[in-house]
């Protein structure tokens, strides 16, 4: 039995011990959502293109919007200003000491770029970009990441699904548990090792917030 | 000493922190328990004297319509680490675990994690839409939600990034900072199953996508099995309405799974036949492994524990002798069955005492009482859950995952207790 199924079986056992309210079918609560209401809120886009609105935008159009509305945080070329997220570059860094995870180096699907920019960006003025503006900004981000190289490139609902990001195959399913269970390696209880040495100390790094030179939150009277 | 002298006119009140410093300076905590007790109060308030609070009336019943903690507990607050994030609105703060006991987190101390600040939502304007692969797309008001049968469940909520700063080594001094992205409250709400059944799931319904009504529009993909199992749309925490920073007026509860999926200010649930691969399950909340591949959909929070006292923010302030070690353990895979603790860096382990309710996917409180001889200690705790999972060391996790996975660090924490009672976050061989 897989661990997941075992856990599911245990959950059922636990649920039996708890009192479950009766609910016999529909209670007739809620009101039907109209197509207009759904259209106003249903903004998500999937990797297969489901949810994309009609529209189009070019790299050049995207550059103009990006410089005006995005570059103050993300830099003119998606390189990131200060601590704000880097959107371009970082290719071939995923195995390095300090990976640079960007749309071009890490993200698997272009749909996520459209979905996220439209729902949450610009930061502080979300859902302000039109469909055409969003297509244009996404096209510009493809350009910044060297995924398209033509400033005249136009991204649209029609050609959207044909664009693939470099790291689409970079993701694998959850492989846990990836350390031994008690049945495989019962934990040692006594005389487990001869010697113990301190190898790292947070005090040396000294980045914890402080009050009066001491770690914040120290118990006081 | 005159009985009429107000406490602030009395001698300076030496703080426990001052005492600790004295210990560090070499005055020594070995001076004995009597000294610690005598130094810890204003003689005017101690026997045989009679304190003011024993003589004069205190505030009346309406002084605090919504009560707050004693002013002497002012240090028990959420704290943030400013360098962790670029802005305050997409950021994190930490529960003061080192000051708490039991398994319930007070609402005002539950850590916060927002991606677009706190959505300040009017409950009369609250709407929850269910659409997609359903027979009947619906919109619920908050009052509608409150007409469904309710359940009460106690669960921990842990941020996937809890302890994430510690992947490369010991960084932050205090369990508030290393482990404080967790809280545990009693939720009251409607099983998500009932809401989905009200709309009627189509046979090809395999996934749901909860979405927040905040400016981040937080969206995640949740498999339908989980949605129909134990997810709750909650509108109360610890008996009262959700706090605004916890999703007022309604949030999703996803027991045992990473906090990011517990969508706050829940405005919509779409039903679909495949996952959405939203930003928060591709760019974020994916776990980069050493070879360059990343795990996705790492939903469950594995068994974990931490000693909350002694800890860097909760040093030992008494002399040697009777000492209470306490901490928290939890598992997204069920109940905690056992917690082991060591005082000597893992040479020898002792089974701790779990006290209070042991509920699946909830915090568990453990204690280990011991006689401290004043020598240096290396404290660790090791949780076991009902699936047979044993909390691993950080080295065991790093051997499999490397140091860049950011999320899901449930490795064993070590505290170094020095002879003066001070405590540091360390790693050991």
Automatic annotation (TrEMBL), chain A:
<keyword id="KW-0408">Iron</keyword>
<dbReference type="InterPro" id="IPR051459">
    <property type="entry name" value="Cytochrome_c-type_DH"/>
</dbReference>
<dbReference type="Pfam" id="PF00034">
    <property type="entry name" value="Cytochrom_C"/>
</dbReference>
<dbReference type="InterPro" id="IPR036909">
    <property type="entry name" value="Cyt_c-like_dom_sf"/>
</dbReference>
<keyword id="KW-0349">Heme</keyword>
<dbReference type="GO" id="GO:0009055">
    <property type="term" value="F:electron transfer activity"/>
</dbReference>
<keyword id="KW-0479">Metal-binding</keyword>
<dbReference type="GO" id="GO:0046872">
    <property type="term" value="F:metal ion binding"/>
</dbReference>
<feature type="signal peptide">
    <location>
        <begin position="1"/>
        <end position="24"/>
    </location>
</feature>
<protein>
    <submittedName>
        <fullName>C-type cytochrome</fullName>
    </submittedName>
</protein>
<dbReference type="InterPro" id="IPR009056">
    <property type="entry name" value="Cyt_c-like_dom"/>
</dbReference>
<keyword id="KW-0732">Signal</keyword>
<dbReference type="GO" id="GO:0020037">
    <property type="term" value="F:heme binding"/>
</dbReference>
<feature type="domain" description="Cytochrome c">
    <location>
        <begin position="57"/>
        <end position="145"/>
    </location>
</feature>
Automatic annotation (TrEMBL), chain B:
<dbReference type="InterPro" id="IPR008335">
    <property type="entry name" value="Mopterin_OxRdtase_euk"/>
</dbReference>
<keyword id="KW-0560">Oxidoreductase</keyword>
<dbReference type="Pfam" id="PF00174">
    <property type="entry name" value="Oxidored_molyb"/>
</dbReference>
<dbReference type="InterPro" id="IPR014756">
    <property type="entry name" value="Ig_E-set"/>
</dbReference>
<dbReference type="GO" id="GO:0043546">
    <property type="term" value="F:molybdopterin cofactor binding"/>
</dbReference>
<dbReference type="InterPro" id="IPR030835">
    <property type="entry name" value="Sulfite_DH_SoxC"/>
</dbReference>
<protein>
    <submittedName>
        <fullName>Sulfite dehydrogenase</fullName>
        <ecNumber>1.8.2.1</ecNumber>
    </submittedName>
</protein>
<dbReference type="InterPro" id="IPR000572">
    <property type="entry name" value="OxRdtase_Mopterin-bd_dom"/>
</dbReference>
<dbReference type="GO" id="GO:0050310">
    <property type="term" value="F:sulfite dehydrogenase activity"/>
</dbReference>
<dbReference type="InterPro" id="IPR006311">
    <property type="entry name" value="TAT_signal"/>
</dbReference>
<feature type="domain" description="Moybdenum cofactor oxidoreductase dimerisation">
    <location>
        <begin position="297"/>
        <end position="413"/>
    </location>
</feature>
<feature type="domain" description="Oxidoreductase molybdopterin-binding">
    <location>
        <begin position="115"/>
        <end position="275"/>
    </location>
</feature>
<dbReference type="InterPro" id="IPR036374">
    <property type="entry name" value="OxRdtase_Mopterin-bd_sf"/>
</dbReference>
<dbReference type="InterPro" id="IPR005066">
    <property type="entry name" value="MoCF_OxRdtse_dimer"/>
</dbReference>
<keyword id="KW-0500">Molybdenum</keyword>
<dbReference type="GO" id="GO:0020037">
    <property type="term" value="F:heme binding"/>
</dbReference>
<keyword id="KW-0479">Metal-binding</keyword>
<dbReference type="GO" id="GO:0008482">
    <property type="term" value="F:sulfite oxidase activity"/>
</dbReference>
<dbReference type="GO" id="GO:0030151">
    <property type="term" value="F:molybdenum ion binding"/>
</dbReference>
<dbReference type="GO" id="GO:0006790">
    <property type="term" value="P:sulfur compound metabolic process"/>
</dbReference>
<dbReference type="Pfam" id="PF03404">
    <property type="entry name" value="Mo-co_dimer"/>
</dbReference>
């Amino acid at each position: 039995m897989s661990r997941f199924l075992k856990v599911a079986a245990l959950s059922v056992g636990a649920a039996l011990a708890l009192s479950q309210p009766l609910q016999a079918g529909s209670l007739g609560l809620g009101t039907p959502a109209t197509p207009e209401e759904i259209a106003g809120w249903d903004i998500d886009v999937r990797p297969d293109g489901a949810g994309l609105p009609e529209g189009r935008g070019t790299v050049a159009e995207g550059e103009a919007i990006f410089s005006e509305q995005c570059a103050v945080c993300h830099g003119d070329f998606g390189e990131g200003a200060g601590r704000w997220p880097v959107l371009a570059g970082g290719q071939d860094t995923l195995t390095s000491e300090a990976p640079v995870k960007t749309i071009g180096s890490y993200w698997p699907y272009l749909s996520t770029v459209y979905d996220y920019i439209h729902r949450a960006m610009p930061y502080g003025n979300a859902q302000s970009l039109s469909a055409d503006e969003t297509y244009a900004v996404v096209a510009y981000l493809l350009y910044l990441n060297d995924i398209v190289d033509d400033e005249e490139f136009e991204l649209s609902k029609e050609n959207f699904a044909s664009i693939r990001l470099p790291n689409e195959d970079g993701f694998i399913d959850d492989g846990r548990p990836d350390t031994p269970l008690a049945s495989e390696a019962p934990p040692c209880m006594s005389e487990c090792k001869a010697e113990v040495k301190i190898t790292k100390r947070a005090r040396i790094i000294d980045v914890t917030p402080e009050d009066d030179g001491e770690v914040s939150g120290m118990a006081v009277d | 000493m005159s009985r009429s002298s107000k406490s602030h006119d009395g001698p300076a009140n030496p703080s426990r922190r001052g005492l600790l410093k004295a210990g560090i300076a070499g005055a020594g905590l070995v001076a004995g328990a009597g000294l610690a007790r005598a130094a810890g109060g204003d003689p005017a308030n101690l026997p045989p004297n009679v304190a003011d609070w024993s003589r004069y009336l205190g505030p009346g019943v309406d002084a605090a319509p919504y009560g707050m903690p004693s002013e002497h507990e002012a240090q028990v607050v959420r704290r943030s680490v400013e360098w962790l994030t670029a802005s305050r609105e997409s950021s994190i703060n930490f529960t003061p675990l080192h000051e708490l006991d039991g398994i319930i987190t007070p609402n005002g101390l539950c850590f916060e994690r927002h991606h677009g600040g706190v959505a300040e939502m009017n409950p009369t304007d609250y709407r929850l839409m269910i659409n997609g692969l359903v027979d009947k797309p619906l919109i619920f008001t908050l009052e509608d939600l409150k007409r469904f049968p309710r359940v009460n469940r106690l669960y921990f909520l842990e941020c996937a990034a809890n302890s994430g700063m510690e992947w490369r080594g010991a960084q932050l001094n205090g369990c508030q900072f290393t482990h404080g992205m967790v809280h545990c409250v009693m939720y009251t709400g409607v099983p998500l199953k009932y809401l989905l059944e009200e709309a009627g799931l189509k046979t090809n319904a395999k996934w749901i996508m909860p979405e927040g009504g905040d400016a981040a529009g937080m969206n995640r993909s949740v498999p339908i099995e989980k949605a129909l199992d134990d997810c709750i749309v909650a509108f109360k925490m610890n008996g009262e309405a959700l706090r605004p920073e916890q999703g007022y007026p309604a949030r999703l509860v996803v027991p045992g799974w990473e906090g990011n999926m517990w969508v706050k200010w829940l405005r919509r649930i779409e039903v679909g036949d495949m996952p959405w691969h939203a930003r928060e399950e591709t760019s974020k909340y994916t776990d980069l492994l050493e070879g360059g591949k990343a795990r996705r959909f790492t939903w469950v929070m594995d068994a974990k524990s931490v000693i909350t006292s002694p800890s860097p923010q909760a040093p030992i302030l008494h002399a040697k002798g009777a000492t209470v070690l306490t901490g928290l353990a939890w598992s997204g895979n069920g109940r905690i069955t056992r917690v082991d603790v060591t005082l000597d860096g893992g040479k020898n382990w002792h089974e701790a005492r779990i006290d209070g309710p042991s509920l699946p996917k909830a915090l568990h409180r453990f204690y280990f009482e011991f006689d401290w001889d004043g020598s240096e200690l290396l404290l660790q705790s090791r949780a076991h859950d009902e699936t047979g999972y044993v909390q691993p060391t950080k080295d065991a996790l790093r051997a499999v995952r490397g140091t860049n996975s950011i999320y899901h660090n449930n490795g064993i924490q070590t505290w170094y207790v020095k002879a003066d009672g001070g405590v540091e976050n360390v790693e050991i061989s």
